[in-house]
Amino acid sequence: MKKTIQYYLPILFAVIVSTYILHLNSYASFSDVSSDHDNFTAIQYIQDEEIVSGYPDGSFKPNSTINRAEFAKIIVESQFDQTDINDCLTDNTQSGWTYAFFPDVPMDSWFAKYVCVAKDNDVIGGYPDGSFKPSDNINFAEASKIIVNAFDYTVGTDAVWYAPFVEELSDRSAIPTTISKLDKTITRGEMAEMIYRLDAEVTDEASVTYSNGALTGAKTTSTAMTDTSSTDTSTPDTTSMTDSATTDTSATDTTETTSTPGTSATDTSSTDTSSTTSTTPKSNTLIRDFKFSLPLFSSDSAWNQKASTANVLSNSDNQILSLYRVMLGDTSSLSEAASSPNWQYMDIGYNEYSVPISRASNSTTSVPICNYEGELDYSNPKVVESVAPNYGEGGPATIPVPAGKVRPSGPQSTDADGHLVLYNPSTFIEYDMWQATTVSDGKCKSRGGGLEGTSILEAGTIDFFDVRKEGTNHPNPYYSARAAGIPLLAGLMLPEDVEAGEIKHALAFAIPAPHIVNTDNPAEGVDYFYPASRAEESFYNTDPNAIAQGQRLRMKQTLVDEEGNTIDETSLAPITRMFIKAFRTYGGYVVDNATGFSFYAEDIHTGSLDLTDDEVNQLIGKSAGTPLPSGKTKWELVIEKLAVEVELIPIAEGENEETPKNATITTSNFEVVEHAAKP
Questions:
Q1: How far is residue 636 from each of residues 259, 271, 507, 601, 630, measured CA to CA in Å?
Q2: Torsion over CA of 73, 76, 80 and 83, rounded to 10 degrees?
Q3: 527-531 own/partner pairs: CB under 8 Å, 24+ apart
Q4: CB-based contacts of 205-208 (< 8 A; 24+ apart in sequence)
Q5: Which of 51, 190, 306, 333 is the most exposed place for a label (fewest CB within 10 A)?
Q6: Distance between CA atoms of 604 and 614, rounded to whole angstroms?
Q7: What is the pTM of this model?
Q8: DSSP of 461-493, one letter per residue?
Q9: Is the four-CA dihedral 514, 517, 522, 527 of positive or negative sign?
Q10: How many helices (H) and strands (E) does the chain have?
């Protein structure tokens, strides 16, 4: 239940305000918040409302940044009853859960109950890769969305995800004059200012305004905008880190596990988070203990063919426009199950919705074919003939036993893809699974993906491939763990690629609702192209110009940002330039449906990058000698940096984005090129 503040009569309101002002004047201030500080009144307000109480040393640290976990806690405390906060985990999670809604929010963390309330009440949505990123500093654009949702204001939609929320704060005169940029990392003082103005309905203070995508009215200097780069934030605010009803000093431990950013259709990650630190080392029990010999698949396979010399298709502009409109929010030609991300940038799955790789042992086991919804199903005929001759509905199918602990891709729920590769380095065979289950409450009662285990109990789909061959099921119309019927290792970004200094293969990516015309009998050359072996059956786009499974895209030689300005690629990190070079040289193939323009890298739970610290720093654009965060693997740091920077590259720059169905493109960053040649 949300807290409410009602003012029944103007006179009563005046009395309350007058009384409160008198109270402020007599209230003991924080030791580091002087009366001339920009946010003095606001900080006193949230202290008086017992939203925060400050640090043990009597300070508030108004100029320090605030991370997403702290911000969620303070926002939740300001708007929800303590009973609801205390009961949330009990009411909304299941016995045996290790994480609460997000793979980087442990159930036993101090912030789990606040994230629970925020998630349950649609205050937060997390990132497309399923993570919450509790230890990342929050910027103004992110904060605007969360705080507007928390106060339950009704806002519209916009092609620019944060615009409606920033506009709402602007209309309510709630943007502090120290906010000068949308991606500015906010301070604790600025956080207090926004809560104060909204909660106390203060509308007569100077405020930054938002119009036509720009902020105006910000101060150029401020006592609240001092350098915070050296501020020690390792000791938490005792109120924002503990249950406000009790003083539990053990809860002030901020060594939460961090995870990864994704795209920002929900919470943006426009700031560079590659230097985020954590004091909890990541477990290495899932890291694979073998290396791939590159290249994977035959030299003449689609995955190793260059796209740089391929001709651009005559319909390329129309196809890119169709994708652009869908990404902006046009769903007029999509199937009922399909959706739009309302966000037109790339993202990379490398934590959740990614591809974990583990070693297969020489022993085998039989598992039923059963998805997370508890439905029995048939797998493709290749599995019937080669793996399980006596196969029937639901299996069993014969697969290798994992050589150790495995974790199908998350997030930890039945909404996960549950992808998993078991690879045998001796036979060169990969066994691909979709909705693989390691924890179950009984046959066909999976607890979903993102859970560690030592056995595969069931899977929604099973397939296998020899990585020395073509990397496709074509010409047979089989489906694999990918909707297009191709291997999970095909087009996957691997640590071995980065170690080699160049990604020398095509990339695999998914888009919202690939093309399909004949929904009863999809036909090759219309609905899918080599190396795909089939079309998407449930999430599809009937627009004749839509891009189909197996079609090949290439990145153009000159890239523009969302304003149409040329992107200076020399300012991008070397890992990002490596990705761009691969996309220009080898292109990428549509392999699946997704809620975004999504690429795939090996899951950070299994990937290991064998480079020195300085080689990693060089890849992510840091100076030699910069200490690497102890809570993230080298593979995570590198691929995370790539994920952050590709989010700066839109599909195109255009006009009429507010009406996606009628949007037009001025400049595109991609083109559709001729299909791969069959060996």
A1: 9, 17, 19, 10, 11
A2: -30
A3: 528/484, 529/675, 529/676, 530/302, 530/472, 530/474, 530/675, 530/676, 530/678, 531/301, 531/302, 531/303, 531/470, 531/471, 531/472, 531/474, 531/484, 531/486, 531/490, 531/589, 531/676
A4: 205/173, 206/177, 207/170, 207/173, 207/174, 207/175, 207/176, 207/177, 208/170, 208/175, 208/176, 208/177, 208/179, 208/180
A5: 306
A6: 20
A7: 0.62
A8: EEEEEETTS-SS-TTS----SSTTS--SSTT-B
A9: negative
A10: 14, 15
Joined together, the tokens standing for residue 250 give 């053990």
| Cα torsion angle, 476, 479, 483, 489, sign | negative
Q: Report mean pLDDT in 10-residue bins for the chain, 679 residues.
A: 39 37 47 86 87 79 88 87 88 76 84 90 77 87 89 81 89 91 88 90 89 78 35 34 28 27 30 30 71 95 97 96 95 90 91 95 89 81 57 71 95 93 96 95 90 93 95 88 95 97 97 80 79 90 94 97 93 96 98 94 96 96 91 94 94 90 96 94
CA 616/CA 575 separation, integer angstroms: 9
Alpha helices in 338-423 (DSSP H): 381-386
Q: What distance in Å separates the CA atoms of residue 42 and residue 48, rounded to the nearest whole number?
A: 10
Locate 616 and state its tokens.
């990693």
Q: Is 334 helix (H, G, I), strand (E, B) or coil?
A: strand
Q: What angle do CA 554, 349, 448 make, to 5 degrees?
A: 140
Beta-carbon contacts of 384 under 8 Å, excluding residues fewer than 6 positions away, are 378, 391
Question: Using CA of residue 608, residue 612, residue 613, residue 619, what is the dihedral sign?
Answer: negative
Calculated CA dihedral for residues 628, 632, 635, 640, nearest 10 degrees: -90
Q: Are strands 652-655 and 664-668 parallel, antiparallel or unpaired?
A: antiparallel
Q: How many CB atoms lie within 10 A of CB 183?
A: 14
